[in-house]
Write a structure and sequence with these properties.
alpha+beta, Multidrug-efflux Transporter Regulator, Chain: A, Domain 2, 3 helices
């Protein structure tokens, strides 16, 4: 099993937002879960995908 870890900057680019917004999401607990390794916070790419799918599914339910 291969795990791809993303930096805060890569997550921000993926969701077309700023790194500060990704850090804020982590702070308030609304974004993808990050893992602190040493001084860095890394994000599992699969977790980011799951988080995005829940956001999309929630938006679809709200549009009905």
């Amino acid at each position: 099993m291969t795990v791809r870890l993303l930096t805060t900057e890569e997550v921000a680019a993926r969701f077309r937002t700023s790194p500060a917004t990704v850090r804020y999401w982590r702070h308030v607990g609304v974004g993808p879960c990050g893992i602190k390794i040493g001084r860095r916070v890394l994000y599992d790419e699969a977790e980011c995908d799951r988080w995005w799918e829940t956001k999309v599914a929630g938006a679809r339910r709200g549009a009905r």
